[in-house]
Amino acid sequence: MKHIERKLIQLAIVHFILLIAAQFLLEIPSFKMYTNKSIYYEGVVKSVKEPALETIDR
Hints:
58 residues, transmembrane helix, DUF5359 family protein
C-alpha cells in the first residue's frame, strides 16, 4: 500500500510541475499564438479587413 501511495504522490508532484510549466509558457505571447487555435476561428490573425456592417439607429 505504501508503494502505491508513494507513486501517487510522485505523480501529483510531476503533474504540478507540468501545470506550472504550461501556465508559464501560455504567458509568452509568441508561444500563445501558436497554441491557441481560437484566434484563427475569430479572424484575429487575418490581415484583410472585412467591411463593417452599419446599423440603423431607431
